[in-house]
Amino acid sequence: MGTTQIFRVNQARDLIAAGSVDEVLSGLQPGEFLWLHTVEPTADDLVPLIGQLGIHPLSVEDALDMNSIPKIDIYPDSTLVLINAFTYRNQELHVQEIDLILGERFLVSVDRIGPDGKPLLEGITATALASRSHEEVGPAYVMHAILDTVVDRKLHSIETIEEEVAEAENTLFERPSDFSPKSMQHIRRSLLQMRKSLYHEREVFLKISRQDCPLIPEKAIFHYRDIYDHITRYFELTESLRDMETSLMEIDLSLRSNEMARAANRTNRSVGRLTFISTIFLPLTLLASIGGMSEWSMMTGPENWRVSYPLFLLAMAAIGIASTYLLRYLARRDASRDDHDDRG
């Protein structure tokens, strides 16, 4: 069983605790309404409300299903508003739903236990009516106070992720080697979750602002439009952060590609030098191996070695110099052709 608080709210904004729903309903006076606030309810807590308050069974089903997307369902005698609460702890985003069932003379608020072990709306019963004037007392105004609290707390999670993106940006430009693309994955995942939730929540408040819900009085619509403006701003902020995160990943990929290209160029230059040296010395090595054998003495005669070997060394030097100039000429010609092709 979940924790449930039942109040009778009068026009003086007093929260009068009651023991049961039937007790409150039997004693309601004109201008008063029932507020039932429950934390982590079970089916035994909510199913009886179908008959007691005339809540649609689908509203109870959605309130018990914690994997629903934000939405507003308008029924003849009640309206379900489902919105998500954000909690960002230890680089992980927790998205938990808050369910509100609005009637003409009642409000049911379904709370959840957050990652810190406390209810997401802890203390809401004491502050929901504190800022309201005497003309702004009713289920729709209490629901606005709850929704306004949930939406305002979203900003803290968004700002925390914004700080992480800014820190990652500084790391990328100041210490590129310390930047880890893997560390950005949780930011991408969190922003996608936020965007999905905010997109549907914007549609919820758009419908309320268009006065699609007859249970929300016209005077209260202006308060809900203010929440709609906040949701729209948060949605645009998450889009900007997603763009920044994508840009950082692209810049990191570009820097890594440039570093790999520089490493490849250094390798190519080293291989080119070795090839240059090998091209020059391979023919000289061949000549040296021939000159070092007895065939050279047999061809020139043993008595002529004082002349033939200096001439042989001189020929090797000439071939080496000629090979060097020829290779440099070919290298300059290839470079000139490459420049011409690039300009073309």
If you had to describe this structure to a student in words, what would you say it looks like?
The protein has nine helices and seven strands, in the order E-E-H-E-H-H-E-E-E-E-H-H-H-H-H-H. It is an alpha+beta fold and 344 residues long. It folds into two domains: 253 residues, CorA soluble domain-like (Beta Polymerase, domain 2, 2-Layer Sandwich); 52 residues. The chain is rod-shaped. It starts with a strand and ends with a helix.
Spell out the CATH superfamily of the largest domain. CorA soluble domain-like
CATH level-3 fold name of the largest domain: Beta Polymerase, domain 2
Helix-and-strand structural type:
alpha+beta
Q: What characteristic shape results from the CA principal axes?
A: rod-shaped
Contiguous runs where pLDDT drops below 50 for at least 5 residues: none
Structure described in brief:
The protein has 344 residues and is α+β, with helices and mostly antiparallel strands.
Keywords:
single chain; 344 residues; alpha+beta; Beta Polymerase, domain 2; 7-stranded mixed beta sheet; 7 strands; rod-shaped
Question: What's the helix and strand layout?
Answer:
Blueprint (H helix, E strand, L loop, with lengths): L2 E7 L5 E3 L3 H7 L5 E7 L3 H11 L3 H8 L6 E4 L3 E12 L2 E12 L2 E6 L12 H4 L11 H36 L10 H25 L8 H74 L2 H7 L4 H39 L1
Parallel strand pairs: 3-7
Antiparallel strand pairs: 1-2, 1-3, 4-5, 5-6, 6-7
Helix pairs in contact: 5-7, 6-7, 7-9
